[in-house]
Structure to design on (421 residues):
């Protein structure tokens, strides 16, 4: 058997260095919120495959559904011979859509692909090209989504011309002194100076920014965006790829605001670790796109659909949405208490919704130290935010109470080790 060090050397030699890595250890097996590396060491997983595992690693219900599908068939290409799980999943997502009226859904493989296609659909439905996005947004790494992503380095640096017709305004972040009024003032100035709002096909927003730092979009902002969309015939896209599927204590994070989007992108926890994404949209919008111009060879794979149907069942039967709220309350209580401590690294700006919660350390360098010392203690953490100074929690919602406490204790010990000078 190879050691972590041997595998790391092979990884460095064989794998393009453009793919980053957070930990120098290699997975061997996993169970719910625990990961075991190739040397048999156990880790508590507070990252859950970057939020893909609301239902935990290898949930027995998800694995059984996938095994049944594997034994039947693995692929036909939905456009060649359709299969029931795809249709059933679309029916379920239409029923769960966070907007009133009829919905239709189309399935893809990755999050970026869902975002690309949401914009394609919006462009067809409006006959316009422009898209408005936010600073700090993360929508993916393909050319269009790279353009929508509101962080230059490392995502866009050196990649040349980015898709035109993308406009940007600041995302409100209270602790950085950016209020909703600042965002709206910038938008007003943009409309006054450079952009006819009737050229916008869509406004795309994460109801809770993921990569950008777990910043929650205030309901006031979403309400004003909805009004602007209605006034100028623009479509509102909620990118729920990280915030969706129950993590924030509602199935979709935008439900907290009471605002209805026109299109919703989902991926990550939708299929419990299997690659699957979706665009859910209002039927009159979705039905305008001509056959053949959406889809991809693997889009809505039968395996992914079987997994997603099982995930929806688990979210319902195990009450994971309520569980997200309970986990969130426990995290918030601990994090808030840490903000008053002087015997540990400075913790501040606790924020998020439900179990999608994070806090800031003084800078990215401190956060890096915390992530690596937590790993030494057997806890997997991930940062986000402008300078990667935010510790974000994307723990499986199925985590046992005792394991959650153990993980939080490890995090506390780690923060105490990184005492301010
Ligand atoms: C909000 C959001 N949108 C889009 C994406 C892109 O998804 P993928 O990496 O599957 O392409 C991500 C990934 O982190 C995301 O968090």
């Amino acid at each position: 058997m190879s050691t972590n060090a041997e595998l790391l050397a092979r990884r460095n030699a064989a794998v393009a260095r453009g793919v980053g890595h957070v930990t120098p250890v290699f997975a061997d097996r996993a169970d719910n919120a625990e990961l075991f590396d190739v040397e048999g060491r156990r880790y508590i997983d507070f990252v859950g495959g970057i939020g893909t595992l609301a239902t935990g690693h290898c949930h027995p219900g998800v694995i059984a559904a996938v095994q049944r599908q594997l034994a039947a068939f693995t692929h036909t290409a939905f456009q060649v011979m359709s299969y029931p799980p795809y249709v059933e999943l679309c029916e379920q997502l239409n029923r769960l859509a966070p907007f009133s009226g009829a919905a239709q859904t189309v399935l893809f493989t990755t999050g970026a692909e869902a975002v690309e296609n949401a914009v394609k659909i919006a462009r067809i439905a409006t006959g316009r090209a422009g898209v408005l996005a936010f600073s700090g947004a993360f929508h993916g790494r393909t050319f269009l989504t790279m353009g929508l992503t509101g962080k230059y380095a490392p995502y866009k640096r050196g990649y040349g011309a980015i898709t035109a017709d993308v406009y940007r305004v600041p995302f409100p972040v209270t602790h950085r002194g950016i209020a909703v009024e600042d965002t709206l003032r910038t938008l007003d100035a943009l409309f006054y100076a450079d952009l006819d709002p009737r050229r916008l096909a869509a406004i795309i927003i994460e109801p809770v920014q993921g990569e950008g730092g777990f910043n929650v979009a205030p309901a006031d902002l979403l309400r004003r965006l909805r009004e602007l969309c209605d006034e100028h015939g623009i479509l509102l896209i909620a990118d729920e790829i990280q915030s969706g599927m129950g993590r924030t204590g509602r199935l979709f994070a935008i439900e907290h605001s009471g605002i209805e989007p026109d299109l919703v992108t989902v991926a990550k926890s939708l299929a419990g670790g299997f690659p699957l994404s979706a665009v859910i949209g209002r039927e009159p919008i979705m039905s305008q796109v001509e056959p053949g111009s959406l889809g991809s060879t693997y889009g809505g794979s039968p395996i992914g659909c079987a997994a997603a149907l099982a995930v929806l069942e688990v979210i319902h039967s195990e009450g994971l949405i309520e569980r997200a709220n309970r986990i969130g309350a426990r995290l918030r209580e601990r994090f808030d208490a840490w903000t008053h401590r002087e015997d540990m690294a400075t913790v501040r700006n606790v924020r998020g919704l439900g179990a999608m919660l994070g806090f800031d350390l003084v800078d990215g360098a401190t956060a890096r130290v915390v992530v690596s010392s937590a790993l030494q203690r057997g806890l997997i953490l991930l940062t986000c935010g402008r300078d990667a100074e935010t510790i974000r929690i994307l723990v499986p919602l199925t985590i046992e109470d005792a394991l959650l406490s153990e993980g939080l204790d490890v995090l506390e010990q780690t923060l105490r080790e990184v005492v301010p000078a």
Observations:
- The mean pLDDT is 97.
- The CA atoms of residues 171 and 177 lie 11 Å apart.
- The two ends are 42 Å apart (CA to CA).
